[in-house]
Specification:
- It contains two helices and 45 strands.
- By secondary structure, the chain is mainly beta.
- It has a domain of 149 residues: YVTN repeat-like/Quinoprotein amine dehydrogenase (Methylamine Dehydrogenase, Chain H), CATH 2.130.10.10.
- The protein has a six-stranded mixed sheet, with no helix packed on it. A six-stranded antiparallel sheet has the order 8-9-10-11-14-15, with no helix packed on it.
- The longest helix has 13 residues.
- The radius of gyration is 25 Å and the shape is globular.
- The termini are far apart.
């Protein structure tokens, strides 16, 4: 049994990029600020730092025709966390065209006229060798395709930047590749930020294998060891690489910042980028008698803060906390203060904490030990108020007052069946919750259908569930359970959409498509208007992944097709197939 536990611990640590090598402390602090960033002085020092963890299995990183179109119409946009901070997605629109990634690795450009008729006007196929597109950005001037390339030297995060002012004469302006795997990205105005991870070969064949590099318009540039930074008391076998592209002047080289570490969960405000990753240091559990002492691996989250200014990222500070954030929505910045919600383990029981930091990542306040025995399922911050859902059998919704960053507190709590995996601010006092309905059986919760709920938080001390509905039975699922970009909300029409696979009570799939719901605030109810399918049962590539609208046209998008419907009547208009 002890051998089995040891093997499991090794596997857990194998899935992390870094290992804390600080000495055990009798009472480890939940928050530690790290000011030890240093520049590597030589290639020999870089080899020494990497060799320290190269043979340590605990520190291996696991992540490892002329087409003009109609004039732009009102249209939906990608559902992002922060207004004005764009996030890449598999589908984008500029109100004239839809840009989507097909299952064949093409980027399709489809025009949508004012009557909802569709035309495939262009397919981008001529990317670099072995490139697989993953996500897209679109603005008035640029189409940016981000993905992964590989060659004999390894894998690269790649971005192709096109001038799209004339779709018929789509022009490639710049292509750039960063050695390593693509993790995430953000775009603010004319600044594109790429977050990548790179793990050198386990055995270094040549010195350049150790050095991060980028390839811009065919030219390879290696960083020198002095371009790479590290932190004391932490050993890593991987790099966190931050790339920034100035779209206002594409003659400039990409700005590259490299640190020993990795990047997993990303939050970005208009001024700052926060990158976090998990590590598992060895911690002691002190007993009354020394011979009864034991040790365990304690999950910590490392937080790096970078100031963003016109495609330049400057390191600010680092902090460590115990526990882990569920996703990017567990982080937020407001009035210069950074907030993060984590699930931690306290003496074998999960607890949930919120930490508040100032602009230098010095802790100012905390709320601790919320919902013991449960874990966080969703978080939403809205100004000086925070909302958090935990779950094990019932769903407590916590309302937190964060107006005083030095003394945050819980104002109220609501316990109801089911749980929310995503919360959307309908207004400052109403929250739209999306998740799963549950039933209790033998003291445990069983998922049923998708649950949608409207919460009234106007009285912070007494939050209420105004109304709710459930869709499908056991086995029903939606990408929105883990990806907020699958959600489309039209506030003017009070209509929202999301893709879903709808099952009966015995896990038998009934349909797959775009669920179209209307919010009826006057009668306190949700109305499911339709579930728009693309014949998924005849072609698995017709799995609907996104919904969007352009003018009075509602569209469903899969890897294989785009269907259009009258937004008012939901009557089918047209489709275009990519196979």
């Amino acid at each position: 049994m002890k051998k089995l536990i040891a093997v499991l611990l090794i596997l857990i640590l194998l899935l992390t990029g870094c290992t804390d090598v600080t000495q055990p402390s009798p009472q480890p602090s939940a928050v530690v600020r790290d000011e030890s960033i240093k520049s590597i002085e030589s290639l020999s020092q870089l080899k020494s730092l990497l060799d320290a963890s190269k043979d340590n299995i605990f520190s291996r990183w696991y992540r490892s025709v002329t087409a003009t179109g109609d004039a732009s119409q009102s249209h939906s946009e990608t559902n992002t966390q922060v207004a004005g901070v764009d996030e890449a997605d598999t589908v984008k629109t500029d109100g004239k065209f839809i840009y989507s990634i097909s299952s064949y690795g093409f980027v399709n450009i489809v025009s949508v006229d004012s009557n909802g008729y569709l035309e495939l006007v262009k397919q981008i196929k001529d990317f670099g060798k072995n490139f697989s597109p993953a996500e897209i950005y679109v603005d008035d001037q640029f189409l940016i395709v981000i993905g992964t390339s590989y060659d004999m030297e390894g894998s690269y995060s790649a971005a192709y930047i096109y001038d799209k002012t004339d779709i018929a004469e789509l022009k490639l302006l710049k292509d750039v590749m960063i050695k390593g795997y693509y993790s995430d990205s953000r775009k603010i105005g004319n600044s594109l930020y790429l977050i990548c991870n790179y793990t050198p070969y386990y055995y270094y064949l040549k010195d350049t294998d150790l050095l991060p590099c980028y390839i811009e318009n065919g030219k390879t540039t290696y960083q020198s060891p002095s371009d790479i930074f590290y932190f004391d008391e932490t050993e890593c076998s991987s790099y966190l690489i931050l790339g920034a592209v100035d779209l206002s002047d594409l003659t400039k080289d990409i700005n590259l910042n490299t640190y020993l570490g990795s990047g997993q969960t990303v939050y970005m405000s208009h001024e700052n980028l926060y990158v976090t990753y998990s590590q598992y240091p060895y911690k002691p559990v002190r007993k009354i008698l020394p011979e009864e002492d034991s040790y365990y691996y304690k999950e910590e989250t490392v937080i790096h803060k970078f100031r963003a200014d016109n495609a330049v990222l400057n390191y600010v500070a680092t902090a460590k906390i115990t526990g882990y954030p569920i996703n990017q929505f567990a982080m937020d910045e407001y009035n210069g203060f950074f907030r993060i919600a984590v699930t931690d383990n306290l003496e074998g029981k999960s607890v949930n904490n919120v930490y508040v930091f100032d602009e230098n990542l010095v802790q100012t306040g905390t709320i601790q030990n919320m919902a013991p025995g449960e874990r966080i399922y969703s978080v939403r911050f809205n100004g000086d108020i925070g909302y958090m859902v935990t779950f094990v059998v019932v769903d407590p919704l916590f309302v937190m007052d964060l107006s005083d960053p030095y003394n945050p507190k819980v104002d109220g709590e609501l316990k109801i069946p089911g749980y929310s995996t995503y919360m959307h601010m309908y207004s400052d006092t109403l929250i739209l919750g999306f998740g799963m309905d549950t039933t209790e059986q033998d003291g445990r919760a069983l998922n049923q259908g998708i649950k949608i709920a409207m919460f009234d938080v106007s009285d912070r001390a007494n939050p209420k569930q105004l109304f709710t509905t459930s869709i499908g039975g056991r086995g029903t699922w939606s990408e929105l359970n883990y990806n907020h970009k699958a959600f489309m909300f039209d506030r003017e029409k009070d209509i929202f959409t999301f893709p879903a696979s709808i099952s009966g009570n015995n896990y038998e799939m009934k349909t797959q498509g775009l669920v179209v719901c209307k919010i009826d605030m006057q009668n306190n109810r949700f109305e499911v208007l339709d579930i728009l399918s693309q014949d998924y049962f005849t072609n698995w590539s017709n799995y609907v992944e996104r919904g969007m609208y352009i003018g009075n046209t509602l569209l469903t998008i899969s890897k294989n097709a785009i269907y259009s419907y009258n937004y008012t009547t939901l009557q089918f208009i047209d489709n275009v197939l990519f196979d």
